[in-house]
């Protein structure tokens, strides 16, 4: 199946990053530190940025958090990190931006939720205040509707209208419509207040894959705002990865989406950066962008009773990913490279020939040698106890000769 052309939306400038308007799909993430803890937040923003997050969102939920934002921005700049910082506001954002103008100025974007920007009679004036701050400081805004915190006034109104129909819609359909209407009406109101369309991004996140796909398909037909994709509360481990991949891949295949986040629940002791890696790998395996050299490796079978090829594949993959922050400028184009680490003679030579550089390790009963192919040509056969070290050295040489300054 071919990839549908990207839907061209308004382009939004967020710091140095362009979102929408045909720009590449952007990867973003969010910290889980207490924003008031400046050191921890700065460190995690840097970790996420090094991993490849192009936008990082932080929680701004208290006066201490709001007071910390300018210093967080200052320390990041001093360390050479210009990644845009987004302030995530709920319930009290209007008060915090009013009391701490330095916070309002330091952030590159505001994220607000129509469902909890204010309750009852306070909803509209507090929403207006948030938009007015965005206009005053020339900041873009993501209007992010969440199924778990949907504006009940909108839902109640649509339910009342639905009851008047001769053939009322089922509750899931009404809820989907309420999510979309909440986003579109809020965006229209933001424009009325003075925020241009190219300062507005929309998201409509829920945790059900099929419902999320339906919502974004409909939303995309009804507006030209830049769209942020994400499956909210995706879950932990493989469940979260699979669910997010399924939902977002379908939408991007249809040309929908300008920026993505993978909302994984981190497993105890694991790095927050996993959500960035997963987002990049979705985009790269779908053919939308390239971030790091891809490692092609076989799953193993009865012919590969040794785990040597698995260890080598893991070592090479980790080596490539860890090296990418410095390689991005030193070796332009290296992210397009493919490395094959294969475990036996069945598919090993063929896959190795098709990769930029590949190795075909011996399987059970095969001669204990490992031919290496570069650009389809066998260049050397490795033997002995140091195949892993020798192959990594060959990968390094390949990168230097094909992507280094002398190769340009």
Automatic annotation (TrEMBL):
Sites where the protein binds [4Fe-4S] cluster: 298, 301, 344, 351
Give cofactor(s), names only: [4Fe-4S] cluster
Keyword terms: 4Fe-4S, Iron, Iron-sulfur, Isoprene biosynthesis, Metal-binding, Oxidoreductase
Comment on bound cofactor? Binds 1 [4Fe-4S] cluster.
Which Pfam families does the record cross-reference, listed alphabetically?
GcpE, GcpE_C
Any one Gene Ontology molecular-function term assigned to this protein's record: 4-hydroxy-3-methylbut-2-en-1-yl diphosphate synthase activity (ferredoxin)
Catalytic activities: (2E)-4-hydroxy-3-methylbut-2-enyl diphosphate + oxidized [flavodoxin] + H2O + 2 H(+) = 2-C-methyl-D-erythritol 2,4-cyclic diphosphate + reduced [flavodoxin]
Top enzyme class: oxidoreductase
Q: Where is the IspG C-terminal domain?
A: 295-396
Please name the pathway.
Isoprenoid biosynthesis; isopentenyl diphosphate biosynthesis via DXP pathway; isopentenyl diphosphate from 1-deoxy-D-xylulose 5-phosphate: step 5/6
Where do the IspG TIM-barrel domain residues begin and end?
A: 9-279
What Enzyme Commission number(s) appear in the record? 1.17.7.3
Q: Name one GO biological process term.
A: isopentenyl diphosphate biosynthetic process, methylerythritol 4-phosphate pathway
Explain the purpose of this protein: Converts 2C-methyl-D-erythritol 2,4-cyclodiphosphate (ME-2,4cPP) into 1-hydroxy-2-methyl-2-(E)-butenyl 4-diphosphate.
- Family of the protein in this entry: Belongs to the IspG family.
- What PANTHER family does this protein map onto? 4-HYDROXY-3-METHYLBUT-2-EN-1-YL DIPHOSPHATE SYNTHASE, 4-HYDROXY-3-METHYLBUT-2-EN-1-YL DIPHOSPHATE SYNTHASE (FERREDOXIN), CHLOROPLASTIC
The entry's protein name is 4-hydroxy-3-methylbut-2-en-1-yl diphosphate synthase (flavodoxin)
Protein's organism: Methylotuvimicrobium alcaliphilum (strain DSM 19304 / NCIMB 14124 / VKM B-2133 / 20Z)
């Amino acid at each position: 199946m071919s990839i549908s052309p990207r839907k061209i939306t308004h382009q939004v400038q967020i710091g140095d990053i362009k979102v929408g308007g045909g720009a590449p799909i952007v990867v973003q993430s969010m910290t889980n530190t207490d924003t008031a803890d400046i050191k921890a937040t700065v460190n995690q923003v840097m970790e996420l940025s090094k991993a490849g997050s192009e936008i990082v969102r932080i929680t701004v939920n208290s006066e201490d958090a709001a007071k910390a934002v300018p210093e967080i921005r200052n320390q990041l700049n001093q360390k050479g990190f210009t990644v845009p910082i987004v302030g995530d506001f709920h319930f009290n954002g209007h008060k915090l931006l009013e009391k701490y103008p330095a916070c309002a100025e330091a952030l590159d974007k505001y994220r607000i939720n129509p469902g909890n920007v204010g309750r009852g009679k306070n909803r509209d004036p507090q929403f207006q205040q948030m938009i007015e701050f965005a206009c005053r400081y020339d900041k873009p805004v993501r209007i992010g509707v969440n199924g778990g915190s949907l504006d009940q006034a909108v839902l109640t109104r649509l339910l009342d209208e639905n009851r008047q129909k001769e053939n009322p819609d089922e509750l899931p359909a009404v809820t989907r419509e309420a999510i979309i209407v909440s986003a579109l009406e809020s965006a229209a109101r933001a424009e009325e207040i003075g925020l241009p369309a190219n300062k507005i991004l929309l998201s409509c996140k829920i945790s059900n894959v099929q419902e999320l796909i339906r919502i974004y398909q409909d939303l995309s037909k009804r507006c030209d705002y830049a769209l942020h994709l994400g499956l909210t509360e995706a879950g932990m481990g493989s469940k979260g990865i699979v669910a997010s991949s399924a939902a977002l891949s379908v939408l991007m295949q249809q040309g929908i989406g300008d920026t993505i986040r993978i909302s994984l629940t981190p497993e105890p002791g694991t790095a927050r950066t996993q959500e960035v890696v997963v987002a990049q790998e979705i985009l790269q395996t779908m053919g939308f962008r390239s971030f790091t050299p891809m490692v092609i490796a076989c799953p193993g079978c009865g012919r590969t009773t040794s785990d040597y090829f698995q260890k080598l594949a893991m070592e090479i993959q980790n080596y490539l990913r860890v090296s990418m922050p410095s390689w991005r400028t030193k070796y332009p184009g290296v992210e397009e490279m493919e490395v094959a680490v294969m475990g036996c003679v069945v598919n090993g030579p063929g896959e190795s020939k098709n990769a930029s550089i590949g190795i075909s390790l011996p399987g059970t009963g095969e001669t204990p040698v490992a031919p290496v192919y570069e650009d389809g040509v066998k260049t050397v056969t490795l033997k002995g106890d140091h195949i892993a070290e020798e192959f990594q050295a060959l990968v390094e040489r390949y990168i230097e000769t094909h992507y280094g300054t002398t190769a340009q």
